[in-house]
């Protein structure tokens, strides 16, 4: 197993390199980069006057506004070429793309992500500041969906075709069909001071006076704020995992080894949890990395926006809009790295659930 783990870790290097290289290449052709963002801000706020007075955005230097000077940046006509050159140097665009990409990789290997373009904070500190919110959402959604879905899926498989199976399938299908963000808006209208009840807070993960609360009150305040976001996110995750669990159990229950186990006189509980469970859970475990990553990053983006939860999803979205490339690439790098390691963890869980699986004998 040690050799397999080592091979998987070594394969992460070219995978991560490919992700970063493709993303970097795409960014080179994306309009509205950080230089254009600064130009737009200056021109929209009276850029000529501010440039003449040596505004803080230009590092305190005075720049003359020339006549219609050609520029490769949209909206830069009339700005001093020296000012544009200093902006390019500030953001690192005075170097060739390959050199910038090489420097970025070297820094990222050492987890040196530099500083945000438009925030007075290092990228790593900014990500660590937002990460607790996303980790909290991802862990709770994954835990709740599995705790609900696995027992329900098993029960549905045992009662396949019964009234219980039919009405729970209806609930599951409706839950799967409703987008999480739409259900979140419905919850806000019903329970967060909309047209009906004002039971839950509308924004944030804790109250403003959270530091002043006792530990029991802090826990209650945290869950009070998380109730609506978690409910909205659990709906779709719960539906998918439930159907996956049911179908896996149905497939295993119909196999010959189950008939043999029953013929030997084993109880239904021994058959289900002593024989069927391990085999049926393999496909569910295989979906764990995707479920966690979806809840950790992608799935929480809209929910973070709706409930004003300041996590990585909202940070990444705003950084893309602002063209804050250090934050965008650092977020992508950390996300990809976590995803790759969770994929490895999923394979190790395979061997724990079913010792017959031996990755050492397989070619990767």
Describe this protein's structure.
This protein is mainly α and 364 residues long. The protein folds into 2 domains: 32-103, no CATH class; 123-361, MetI-like fold (Orthogonal Bundle). It has helices at residues 2-28, 34-44, 47-52, 81-91, 97-109, 123-158, 163-177, 180-191, 215-253, 256-263, 268-286, 288-296, 301-306, 312-322, 325-353. Helix 11 (268-286) runs antiparallel to helix 15. The longest helix has 39 residues, at 215-253.
Q: Point out poorly predicted stretches.
A: 45-70
CATH topology (fold) name of the largest domain: MetI-like fold
Could you name the CATH class of the largest domain?
Mainly Alpha
Number of strands: 0
Q: Kindly report the average pLDDT value.
A: 77
* Count of alpha and pi helical runs: 15
Count of the separate structural domains: 2
- What is the string of helix and strand elements? HHHHHHHHHHHHHHH
Taking the alpha carbons of the first and last residues, their distance comes to 13 Å
Coarse structural class: mainly alpha
Q: CATH homologous superfamily of the largest domain?
A: MetI-like
Gross geometry: globular
CATH architecture of the largest domain: Orthogonal Bundle
Helix content: 55-70%
What is the CA-based Rg, rounded? 27 Å
């Amino acid at each position: 197993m040690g050799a397999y783990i080592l091979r998987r870790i070594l394969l992460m290097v070219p995978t991560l390199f490919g992700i970063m290289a493709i993303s970097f290449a795409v960014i080179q052709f994306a309009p509205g980069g950080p230089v254009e963002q600064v130009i737009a801000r200056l021109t929209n706020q009276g850029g000529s006057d501010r440039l003449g007075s040596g505004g803080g955005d230009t590092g305190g230097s005075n720049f003359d506004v020339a006549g219609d000077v050609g520029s490769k940046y949209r909206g830069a006509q009339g700005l001093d070429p020296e000012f544009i050159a200093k902006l390019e140097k500030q953001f690192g665009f005075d170097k060739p793309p390959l050199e910038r990409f090489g420097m970025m990789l070297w820094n990222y290997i050492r987890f040196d992500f530099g500083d945000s373009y438009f925030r007075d904070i290092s990228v790593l500190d900014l990500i660590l500041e937002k990460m607790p919110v996303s980790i909290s959402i991802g862990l709770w959604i994954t835990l709740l969906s599995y705790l609900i879905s696995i027992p329900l899926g098993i029960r549905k498989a045992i009662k396949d075709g019964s009234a219980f199976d039919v009405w729970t399938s209806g609930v599951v299908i409706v839950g799967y069909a409703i987008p999480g963000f739409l259900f979140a808006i419905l919850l806000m209208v019903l329970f967060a001071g909309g047209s009906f009840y004002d039971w839950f807070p509308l924004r944030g993960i804790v109250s403003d006076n959270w530091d002043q609360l006792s530990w029991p009150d802090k826990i209650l305040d945290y869950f009070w704020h998380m109730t609506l976001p978690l409910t909205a996110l659990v709906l779709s995750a719960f539906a998918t995992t439930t159907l996956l669990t049911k179908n896996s159990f149905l497939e295993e229950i119909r196999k010959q080894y189950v008939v043999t186990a029953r013929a030997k006189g084993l109880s239904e509980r021994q058959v289900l949890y002593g024989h069927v469970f391990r085999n049926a859970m393999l496909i569910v475990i295989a979906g764990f990395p995707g479920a966690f990553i979806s809840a950790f990053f992608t799935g929480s983006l809209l929910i973070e926006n709706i409930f004003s939860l300041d996590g990585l999803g909202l940070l990444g979205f705003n950084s893309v809009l602002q063209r804050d490339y250090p934050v965008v690439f650092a977020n992508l790098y950390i996300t990809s790295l976590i995803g790759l390691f969770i994929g490895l963890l999923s394979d190790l869980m395979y061997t724990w659930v079913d010792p017959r699986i031996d990755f050492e004998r397989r070619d990767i």
